[in-house]
Amino acid sequence: MSKLFTPFKIGNSVIKNRIVMPPMCMYKVKDDNGFPRCFHRLHYAARSLGGAGLIIVEATAIEPRGRITHNDLGIWNDEQKEAHARLVKECVKYGAKMAIQLAHAGRKSECDDTPLAPSALKFSDEYQIPKVMSLDDIAQVKSNFINAAIRAQSAGYEIIEIHAAHGYLINQFLSKSVNKREDNYGGSFENRTRLLKEILTEMKAAVSIPIGVRLSADSWKSDDYDIDESVRLAKELENLGAAFIHVSSGGVHSNVDRAPKFVPLYQAGYAKAIKEVVKIPVIVVGLITTASEGEALLLGDVCDGVAYGRELLRNPNFAQTAMRDLGEKELIEKPYRRAF
Ligand SMILES: Cc1cc2nc3c(=O)[nH]c(=O)nc-3n(C[C@H](O)[C@H](O)[C@H](O)COP(=O)(O)O)c2cc1C
């Protein structure tokens, strides 16, 4: 049997195969209300029916000012929670395990309100100068993350992913050059990672489902953090009880001088470096488009799960194609087999 189609575990959740749909914002919310709607139920259920093992629902804001746009999903109130519950119910019928990415955009929010950030540095000229977060703001954001996690669990999600990547709020705190604070949340590695660690620890105390973290393993900028710091952080997150690490990179700066070439598997090196030091599952992502690439990454001990992003946008039935390509045709849902 291929490794791509052997089950794996995140916490106590057993995932039927190692094909992961990574979070991808669809910007399809209407009326500024953060609700998943029919579009979202169909979009995610189609990937579940198509055979993906784990679906991580797109960046979902924990408070209104934490949205990237007004069309983002939210989970800051109980009506939104009910709409998420309908989404989860629809998707799990077809076999995927459902996770949600909990997010705060920080200075990369394009919504009207003055965005929040660790320091008053804008992302680029197209963005606003953010408000420097007070200690009260930090406490409020933490509490909103925890309440969002409680709602996510009660909506039926089996797994939570904390969005600490791509230059959004938590990643802004991790960054040496975005975070210029002089209090306990800025400066040293210990201080810059404090917000993420506090959120993880407090969330773990509040919910019983597994919680993982998505990291941008390299900031792509020479005066900022690199993979060595992310390896250290991943190990510390594991010690605090993180259930998995999802390894992406970049998005922290609008001008970069150390971006990798965007060739197939371009983030695999980062995932492997992290996989070497942790025992929890590692998910790799980034221009992975074929079953054989995923299989090779698994056999090469780069990762435990393989995320196919844009490939799953192009082809909701990608997992079935992969079953055929790896000689596992009997795994394909019966009525679809004749198509292969
Ligand atoms: C349309 C779109 C929306 C995305 N939204 C998110 C998101 O909500 N959260 C996140 O962490 N990454 C997001 N990403 C990044 C993807 O999760 C993934 O890391 C990236 O597309 C690289 O993987 P791929 O080459 O397989 O597509 C998005 C990517 C795309 C194409």
Explain what you see.
It holds the Pfam family Oxidored_FMN. The protein is α/β, with parallel strands linked by helices and 340 residues long. It has a single domain (8-332), classed as Alpha-Beta Barrel (TIM Barrel). It is 35% helix and 15% strand. The protein contains twelve helices and 13 strands. It has helices at 38-49, 78-92, 135-155, 169-174, 189-192, 194-206, 227-239, 268-275, 291-299, 310-314, 318-325, 334-337; strands at residues 8-10, 13-15, 19-21, 54-61, 73-74, 97-103, 116-117, 131-132, 159-164, 211-216, 245-248, 282-284, 305-307. Strands 3-4-6-9-10-11-12-13 form an eight-stranded parallel barrel, surrounded by seven helices. The chain has a two-stranded antiparallel sheet with strand order 1-2. It has a two-stranded parallel ribbon with strand order 7-8. Strand 1 (8-10) and strand 2 form a beta hairpin. Helix 1 (38-49) runs parallel beside helix 2 and helix 2 (78-92) packs across helix 3 (135-155). It starts with 7 loop residues before the first strand and ends with a helix. Residues 22-25, 58-59, 101, 163, 165-166, 214, 248, 285-288, 308-311 line the site of flavin mononucleotide (FMN).
